[in-house]
């Protein structure tokens, strides 16, 4: 393990969670979501992985898959 990892600062949201610990928001105030930039929807990559999940259990042929080869002409 990298010996310098212990010198890193905590992730900002870990620090925020520590700062908010024990604080109870007023019951008469509505929640304000500050989640801009936080992914809430599936990505095209995750959709493709889910769609082809069954293919992960088999190995490609020795020569590889045609779909993954680049044809080079010299």
Describe the structure in your own words:
- This protein is mostly helical and 74 residues long.
- The protein has a domain at 1-38.
- It has 2 helices and no strands.
- It has helices at 12-20, 44-51.
- The longest helix is centred in the N-terminal third of the chain and has 9 residues, at 12-20.
Descriptive labels:
single chain; 74 residues; mainly alpha
* Global mean pLDDT: 79
Helical content class: 10-25%
Give, in order, the helices and strands: HH
Shape: elongated
- The secondary-structure class comes to mainly alpha
Note poorly predicted spans.
Answer: none
Number of strand segments = 0
Instruction: Evaluate the radius of gyration.
Output: 24 Å
What is the topological layout?
Elements: H1 12-20, H2 44-51
């Amino acid at each position: 393990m990298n010996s310098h990892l212990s010198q890193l600062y905590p992730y900002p949201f870990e620090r925020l969670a520590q700062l908010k610990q024990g604080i109870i928001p007023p019951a008469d105030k509505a929640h304000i979501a500050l989640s801009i930039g936080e992914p809430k929807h599936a990505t095209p990559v995750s959709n493709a992985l889910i769609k082809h999940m069954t293919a992960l259990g088999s190995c490609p042929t020795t020569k590889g898959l045609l779909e993954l080869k680049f044809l080079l002409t010299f």
